[in-house]
Amino acid sequence: MGMQPTIWVCGLALAWAAAETDNRSPLADYYGFQPLEIFKLSERAGSLLAGDFNHDGRTDVVLVNNANHRLDLLLQRPAAPMHADRPLSAGANALTDHWRFEPVKLPVDELIAALAVGDFNHDGRDDLAYFVLPDELVVRYQSASGTWSETLQLRLPDILPTQWCLAAGDMNHDGADDLVVLGKRDTVLLYQQPQGGFGVPLRLMNTSDKLGLAQVADLDGDGRLDLCYVAGEAANRMLGVRLQDARGRLGPEFIFDLERPRSVTIKELDGQPGSELLTIDSRTGRLKILKVEFAPLGAGELPEQLVRYGFGAAGSAREREWALGDFDADGRQDVVVSDPDASQVLWFRQGGERGLDLALPFPSLAGADGLRPWTATGVAGQALVVHSSTEKTIGVSRWKNGRFLFPEALPIDLEPAGVEVLDVTGDGQPEIVFLARGKKGKDPEFSLWAYRRNAADTGWEAVPGYGGPTEGGGPAQGSPLSVKSAPERLWAADVTGDARPELLLLQGNKPPVVLQFVEGGALTEVTVTGALGSGSVSGQAWFPARWHDTSGLLIPQDNFVRLMTVGSEKRWQVVEQFNVSEGGAQIVGGALLQLEPGGEPELALVDSGVKKLRLYRGGHVPWKELDLGDFDFLSAAVSDLNGDGRDDLALLGGKQLAVLYSSGLSPRVRELAAFETPLEKTFLSDVAAGDVNGDGRVDLVLTDTRSHFIEILQYRPPSQLRHATYFKLFEEKSFTGGDTPVGEPREVLLADVTGDGRVDLLVLAHDRLLLYPQDPGGEPLPR
Fold this sequence. Notes:
The protein has a domain at 112-206. The chain is 0% helix and 45% strand. It contains no helices and 59 strands. Strand 10 (166-169) and strand 11 form a beta hairpin. The two termini are 16 Å apart.
């Protein structure tokens, strides 16, 4: 026989009401709980977690109690004590805390934002970690005597102190619990050390400044714990995932659009490798069970997701620059991005088939706004040329002993305006080329200079004709130009089809000044007529491309992109135009690349209007769309970034670098099941997973904050979800017609806190903790 729900009513109108007859599920008989147990806390109690907090083998409970500046430990008792506990309230209807838990109070001095449980000193005992306002992480260790006096305090600035910004788990696969803290700009990792304590905080640069709901789980089924969190504002919230690799390191970020999730819970449901995602869609109120899958790309396939690499602090996002090159001389292309406000550069080293590694920062010039790779004669790898408008200098940074050296400044007493690397002498060795700003009377004037290493490789020298020695021994001077204002940047690109790049002086959205090599080898300013029509798009977003044997610039505008070239009449001409017909399209960037071997190249368009990366076969045939999210696009580049010999697409944004790899593993989210509650006037707020009827299978428990229901679902993998039963937690007077969610219950926890081996239901509502012990009676549910 199945068991009927037990009805228990108290004077505070907290009740478990049986399901109404016309809504009763045939599964209801297989779910039930013993009489309700109540524990008085406070309205500000939260962060409900389970653990063994006196090392007796029983599961206890801990909560944050900010109303009283303390942590409340509720230690599970094996039996009722000899003396009754204090009443919950005075008067005729006074209630007494149930005997189940022994309360232990741990005082704290500041308000607690987040709480986590783990063994943080590898002694086999559960410890507590919490983040207190404004900027301190505290770890309290459980001693053998049951005291909590040993503590570790660590100041962590730039943390956004939200309730679930802290998580614990083995983040490097060494068997010890580590800590993860979500910051405003970085995610902080504290790895437990073999000799005890935590190591120096390791910071992973975020792609968003609004991360929350940190969770640790094995998402890809490899036996290693991964980091998951939500990113972005409520209306554009997405799931961020960093997978732990075979080296025990967290990798770059994958972003999955979960369609505005109201809540995200990660649990193992089906006994198969890899945890599942439980989400409640904020638009429909439906529960969804999702699975993140990683599969090798087949022929003609592209990934479902871009791989994201964060920059941390946003700073002067529009001033960001980048360079691609083999900077550590390992034969692979790396990426370096400037961080102007932090006076550093970020190096993304290529690790072969795994792609780019996370950023490593190195000190550099303040306000760096120009980066270029430079190859020295007879030297393996490339050096990094750095231009700084702030410091009014150009420096060269070399790779040595596993790091970038601080840039060596060129010996110039000039104010440089932009930098490029270009072979101006025709000897096959590129020089460092820049504009120098001067004055002629009250008007500014500009000249072109070029520097190279001297023959003895002991220093730098100016190139003749570009600031080098003159025949008459006169003062050094650069090649004069007619431009009257500083360019946005210098850029070498072939726009005439003569197989030798021109030097372009980009001037925002104005047509660039073109310098072309003429007979004799000198760079000479060429008058080019016609307009580019780039609208408000910066020249940084232009892309040098080659299409059907024609070289030019891919320039985005409105809902199209044009390939522009300088014709024989020295006039800008449209070679090809690629249109997007969708009404909301706003193309801000484009690139041509060879994603599939052979055939015509593919066209990639960055569409900020619909927040998509659009891919076209042969330039015109729609192929695939990938989610961009909130991506502040600056520039695009094409290179082999995972060592497979094929083109990959890199997108530079203000806060992140995004890469589309043409081979490797492709992550995608697959929907396993969806459920719409049959209950009326509900606002599903959260979901928990556990075996709440003792049949050995995971059930789902939904919380509703409008009518205050608890709804239980039976789950049969992979896709069967069935309403089993529900009950009302409490009645509440409402002056809004009962249609407005009030936020109660606010938390739910499934854990065996009665010591019978069965999962119990704990609900936090108002100033009460409600415990529904699982009823052990009844026959098992047929499978």
